[in-house]
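Researcher: Go.
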Amino acid sequence: MRLGEHPQLDALCGEYVVGTLRGAARRRFERALSQEPIVARRLQHWQRSLGAGYSDDVAVQPSPAVWQRIRRDLELKRFEPPWHARLWLWRIWASVATAALVLVLALPLVRQTTRPTAYSTLAVLTGKAPEARVTADLSADRRSLRLLAERPVLASRAQSFELWLIPAEGGRPLSLAVVGDLDARIELKASQTARLSRGAKLAISVEPAGGSPTGAPTGPVILIGDVLS
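Model: Structure:
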């Protein structure tokens, strides 16, 4: 006989729901669940009928005293980690607080070190063509020189531009840098900076690739200008 036709099907479903159906009878019932749709439907009916429903209307929040009694009766305290095992939390908080303090203290220094370098105009170099013009700016710490061309000017592959300092007292020009572009930044030596004074001149000549082979201008001087201060 199929279990779906058994006269005690409802009773079997009830026993299954409450857990009193055991052994071979329970195994037979579970096989019928997968093979006979009517058995599955009757079981769902009894599960809805006998199962306890939940509602917020009947929910009750236990008092702290009840929780304490549950903890005591079940001896839950034995499962808590010892106090020294919880020190890692304090270590983490201490590390975070220390990092935050270092960041707050270092922020002004970072801002100071990343502040853009201030430049002031040292000379304006001009040539025969009115549009050919290069401004030479000196950094506030007098350690670097910045060349800014009025228009882009690049040296050819076989040539370079060389920047010269003509001392105020005259004499041999002093090479400051060899560049391939008239937009460039040049690091200065202390001995070079000391001679950048009023009366001196800056000049740019066209030289073979890599610069003058003689230590003095060999090509045409295309730009020249007076040092302003």
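Model: The chain has a mean pLDDT of 83.
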